[in-house]
Amino acid sequence: MKQLLTALPLLVLCLPLPAQEVKSKTKANQANTDDMWVASSVPALPPGVTHHTFRSDSMKRDVGYCLYLPPSYEQDMGQRYPVIYHLHGAGGNETRSVYSASVLNEGILAGKLPEIIMVFPNGGRSTMYQDSGDGRFMAETMMMQELIPHIDTTYRTIADRKARCIEGFSMGGRGSTHLAMRHPDMFGSLFNQSGNVYHVSDVSKAPNFHLGSDPERLKANDPYLNLIKNLAFIKANLRIQVACGTADPEHLTTVREYHDVLTTAGVAHHYFEVDDLDHNQKRMIDGRKAAWFDFQIESLNLNQIPLHYLKPGTNLRRTMP
Q: Is 0.85 surpassed by the pTM of this model?
């Protein structure tokens, strides 16, 4: 694994997304409801991205996800691909964060990035990708026991921990960190993008009404306790990158604490802060667009996952629905 890397501050010039990453979300927008698991309307999606649903047995309902398949997927039937699971932020759904798929697609078509599948699951409005204490919203079970197996059996993935990356912004960064700390045997790399990392078991710091009040459940969902529990495996097998904007005080404090705890625990990881960036994913991506997928690709390379690049001049017609 690489030694700890602290990147230089980045100058970001792009305009924010007005409605996507707004700091002040209303409680109504973040409240979990039974009808939140499939987007009520699907906007125009980037090239290569399609919308799907699958059945969640744990919640007895359909759950939506968006899927990016690389350009050669339908032409090269013998090829299998690594997967990036990208988790959306609070108040969102499976359509929120698909912008990153357009960045990946541009890089692939230019021959600069390898072909990778991306999955954008619906994780609920405010579940933090954890199962609720009352068993009503099973976001973690849906992700780990239902969606990932569904993706691996439905599409030509490389169904191996080393070929499976997880990342996300805001609640998605928090959720991806939670899942990776609790299930490090399922992923080869983690990229937390401006996601709070709370001491869940300490209700005086961060009460969690979604999880309930059972102390054992809270401990089982505490990323710091799971880091300690799984420390040896994480140090040996899970590559981690963490980032946040310096103008994002609501998230920067816990992101820095997580970085410090990783450092103290001897977990080699990449960490960078973006000068003057508020809580805005598109600006974060656009500020380092050419290198946005470098960490995940480097992780795949270090894990010796075969990567397929389009040859210069390749002309592929997409026939996906």
A: yes
